[in-house]
Structures are given as structure tokens and as C-alpha cells.
Amino acid sequence: MTDKNNLSPVERIKTGSNGLRGTLKESLLDDFTGAIREDDQTLIKFHGMYQQDDRDRREERVAKKLEWLYSYMIRLRLPGGFLTSAQWAGLHEIAENHSTGVIKITTRQTIQLHGILKSHVKPTIQNFNLHHLDSIAACGDVNRNVTCTSNPSESPLHQEIYELAGKISEMCLPKTKSYYDLWIDDELVIDRKTEEDPLYQDRYLPRKLKIGIAIPPNNDVDVFINDIALIAIIENNQIVGYNIAAGGGLGATHGNDATYARLASLLGFVDTEEKALKAVYEIITVQRDFGNRSDRKLSRLKYTIDKLGIEGYRTEVEKRCGFAFEPAREFKFEQRKDRYGWLQNHEGKWFYTVFVEHGRILDIEGYPLKSGLLKIAETGKVNFRFTCNQNLILSDIHEQDKGEIEKILKEHGISGYTDEVSALRKNSVACVALNTCSLALAEGQRYLPVLVTKIEPVLEKYGLQNEDITIRMTGCPNGCGRSPNAEIGLVGTAYGKYNLHIGGDRLGMRLNTKFKENIGEEEILETLDELFGIYSEGRYSEETFGDFSYRYLQTIK
Ligand code: SRM
Ligand code: SF4
Fold it and tell me: What's one Pfam family here (predicted)?
């Protein structure tokens, strides 16, 4: 537990925030700046928002003696990543009226809108509320969006884990009602009794916390990167319980060896949903009580586990739960990618997975994706689901409606595009990075598409164009696009420069290793050319690029 005299400044902001209210009301009313007060910039995260600025326009603004062009990013809380048609149509309109218009699917199965000016923040949240959507706890030192295997057609048991994602999300919501009195009602009602928060108390968690649920054999949620990972164990077509793991997290800081990416360690198995919920709750209370509150770089649950030791952490959780974990059960992941195109589930309903490059939904010349999706939403005959690979599933379509949806997909070039893009592109993920992310050292989603176009012919040269190689790029080592567990990971170091990592496995069970440091495009392409050449010559039958690179790294040590 952290010494009270050595707390990070964020701890003071949280405890003194009056249930996360701070001076947000005053900050919003201040017309002289597009920004909000410094402490409020911390608090607004707990309401699902970040203050950002357009980094492309910093120089121009400074030259004009103007303050940076501040705006807000809002992230929705969507456990399991689901919207109805009506909600999608509402989101489309909100994006048009209040943000840049781009609807961004994130790597945690939810949606972000960017570029919302201060005066539009409240109307945006109020409009979300009209569509029964909220952004509570989508960011901040609390549990974030709970992810679960995305595609219901993967398993008849999907609904059960989707509902569990919702229950965990509810269980972990902060009890303060400040979201409603700040953004919706305008009336400050502080009711200490109903706002008492046994889970978060008034100090919240030392840092963000993430939870994911997977149904093997699918690991599209990349379950082991979460602080808490639940793996459904299926016997005789029933979920008989969950393996629970803890301590995943991918963020690190260049030059700070005390920070590192880590995959979650298995704590054990529990045989009921009730026990799974209790275990999740108590894993969180142990992190709340033992996590580092002085150095935010070392405050994620993974560091607490490594400090207490996995046995020590498990013993404390078991003591608080009043039951012990059973030994973890066998499970096997077989894929992490999304299955594009049409799939049918056990009830005969249809699901179409759309490839959305880095989750960016907009209309561009010749590809009116956003308009096509609005037209589909207007039929009222589909639901919208989001994947942790930043893609979209048009879901729950009845047999008799499939033709109508297929026609719209075709007319707008959506199915054509999903069919034709390369395997590498379909397995690529990039984080937002520039121009909105304040932590970006290099480009992410704006550059990976260009780089992939240049890598495609190199793969073709070796006949590897149909290989499902995962490539992920992040503009810094925080790992938002999960570059640390890709087969090819590119981690931004400076503008136009990346560390190249290889050797991660295809299923998300092994982290990759830094192979080249701080290299630009030319060297990335040369290095990959060389590696693909050795791979095509020396691979074992069916060996993935990640497994081959891992083996190759051992030979050159
Ligand atoms: Fe992330 C911070 C975007 C998934 C690890 N992340 C940020 C911020 C908010 C930058 C900031 O703090 O000012 C980025 C906002 C960019 C923007 O302009 O929108 C940002 N993270 C994203 C998203 C939108 C990337 C994307 O393109 O999809 C993802 C939103 C997820 C969501 O819906 O909740 C996103 N971030 C992740 C993931 C992947 C995951 O969870 O599956 C990770 C790695 C896993 C993990 O948490 O360790 C991740 N984000 C971070 C970190 C490193 C945390 C750490 O432990 O060191 C930061 C920096 C921080 O927290 O200080 C960060
Ligand atoms: Fe920003 Fe870094 Fe996350 Fe990319 S990985 S969105 S650059 S914090």
C-alpha cells in the first residue's frame, strides 16, 4: 500500500473531486478558452472524455497567437460492443452534428467521436442519453469497457457471455451520480448515501482497469492483454465456469525498464457465474488496496501482481472471496482474426462482418461506407456489433431480410471492398495516434494503410500474400493497437520512426520482441523483405510467421 505522503497528484484530484464533479461546471461555462481547468482534465476522463487538440494545427495556431485548437473525444461505454439500428442512426446524426463526423470503432469494441468543441460536449452527451447510450467510466481510473467475443455466430453460448459483460460493467460502475447532474440534468444533487461507493471508495483505482471475456476457440478479444481475463470453459455445449487470469497490460515507456508489456497469468477456475463475478470484484479490491498510488507508470494491476507474486495475489483474492480457485481447466484458442463476410448462427440468423480499416467509418470518394451503413440502419433489420479488431458486424439478420442488406452492401461497395482487400490488411490494427492523441510520437491509423500497400508486393514476391500475418502499429509504446502481441509490431519512437518487433504468436498468447530500433520506412521494408525471404525458404509446414520469427530469434541470439 502506498505511503500517504507519497501519493501522485492525481490521487488528490480524485479524493477532492466531490464525486468526480470538481469544477467541471465552471470549466464548461468559461467562454474564454476551449480548454477546461487542469484538474478537471483528469476528472472528465471518468465521464468518458478526453481534452485533446488538433496537433496538425498547433504551429498555425501559435503563429496566429491563438490557443491550441482544443476539442474533446468522447468514448461510449458499450459492454460487448452492441448497438441497435436506431442507436446507430442516432450515433450517425450525433457524429454529423457535433464531431468531425468520423465514427471510430476502437480496439475495445466501442465507439469514439473526436473533435467535439467544448460548447458541443453537453449536447452530445444529452443526445447520447436520448438513445440510451452513455460514456460513464469509459476512461479514468476505473473499470473500462468490458469486451467479449464479438460474433454471436461463433457460439450458441455467446448471449451468456455478452450478458456477463453487461453485468460486470454494471457491477463496476462508480456510484456517483455526477455524470447525470453535470451532463444531463443541470441540477446538482449530491446524495452522499446513494453515492457511497464500496468498490471505488473516494479514491477510485490506482489506474485504469480492463476486463475481457473470451469463448474459445476464438480469441478475437485478445483476452490476455486485460487486467482481468475470463475464459469460458465449455463442456457438453454448456458454460461450466470460467478460467480467470489477471495482470495483463501492454503499456510501457521508452527508456524506462521498470515498465513492460505483460500477458495475464492464470489464477484458476471458478464453476459458477456468481463466483466469477465475486472473483472479479475482489481482484479489483486487491488492486485498489495494494496498487501503487505514487508512480502512475507502475500502477497497473500487472505491477501489483509482480510485486505480490501470483501466489500472494491469489491468496489475498481467495481470502476476500471466501472460496478458493480450482486449478485452471484446459482450453484452446484457434483464431484471433475476425471472420469476414456472411456467417449463420445456430438459430438461422445471418451476420456480416465488414472490414473497416482501423475502425474509421466515413465516406470517401468512391467508397461511401458511412452512408451505406446509415441506409442499412434505416431498414431497422440489423443490429450493429463491434470487434476488438476494429471491425463491424451487421448482426441478427433474418433469412428473409438478407437479400435487402446484401444489396445495400453491394451498392455502396462495402462487400466488394471487404472481399478484395489483402490478408495482411485484414489482419492489421493501428491506434489513433496523430492528429488527436497527445501521447503520439509517430503516426498510427493514418500511416499503416500506406505502409501495408508497400508491404503487399513484398509478400507477393515470396508467394505469401494469403498468409494471415498480424501487423499492428502504435504511435507510441502504450500499445493501444496491441502492437506488443502482434506477429509484426511497429511501435512509434519519433515522427516517421518505429521499433520493429517480431516473434509474437498469431493467437495472442506470446509477446513479441524488439528486433530493430528506431527505423524508417525504407529499413522497415528492407527488413521485412529479408525476413519474408528467410521465412518462405525455412518455415516448417503450416508454421506461422510469428512462430517462425520466434524460432529465428533464438537462432541469432
Ligand atoms: Fe489507449 C491512452 C486510444 C486501447 C493502452 N489511448 C490512450 C489515449 C486516451 C491517449 C491519452 O491518454 O491522452 C488515446 C486517445 C487517442 C485518441 O485520440 O483517440 C488512446 N486506446 C485508444 C484507442 C482509441 C485506440 C484505437 O485506435 O482503437 C483504444 C480505445 C479503447 C477503448 O475503447 O477503451 C485504446 N489502450 C488501448 C489498449 C488495447 C486494449 O485495451 O485492448 C491498450 C493496451 C492494453 C493496456 O491497457 O495495457 C491501451 N492507452 C493505453 C495506455 C498505456 C497504459 C499503461 O498501462 O501504461 C495509455 C496511456 C495512459 O494510460 O497513460 C493509453
Ligand atoms: Fe496514442 Fe500511443 Fe495509444 Fe497510439 S498507442 S493512441 S499514440 S497513446
Answer: NIR_SIR_ferr
**Closest ligand to residue 491's CA:** 2
User: 3-state DSSP: the chain helix, strand, coil percent, rounded to 5?
Assistant: 40, 20, 40
- Ligand 2 pocket test target in 107, 432, 472 with most atoms within 8 Å of CB: 432
Cα 279 from Cα 328, distance rounded (Å): 14
The top-level CATH class assigned to 49-135+339-421 is: alpha beta
- CA distance readout (Å), 93 to 27, 100, 361: 26, 12, 13
Same fold, 141-336 and 425-556: yes
Distance between CA atoms of 486 and 528, rounded to whole angstroms?
14
Q: How far apart are CA 483 and CA 493, in angstroms?
A: 13
Per-residue pLDDT tens digits for 455-482: 999 999 999 999 999 999 999 999 999 9
Q: Distance between CA 318 and CA 17 in Å, rounded?
A: 32
Residues with Cβ within 8 Å of 14's Cβ and at least 6 positions away in sequence, in order, are 20, 42, 43, 141, 202, 203, 204
Asked if residue 472 has its Cβ within 6 Å of ligand 1, the reply is: no
Which pTM was predicted?
Answer: 0.98
Query: CATH top-level class for 141-336?
Result: alpha beta
Q: What is the pLDDT of residues 192-242, one digit of tens each?
A: 678 999 999 999 999 999 999 999 999 999 999 999 999 999 999 999 999
Distance from Cα 107 to the centre of ligand 1, integer Å: 9
Instruction: For residue 185, count other CB atoms closer than 10 A to its CB.
Output: 13
- Residues 300, 472, 557, 256: what is their CA dihedral angle, to the nearest 10 degrees? -30
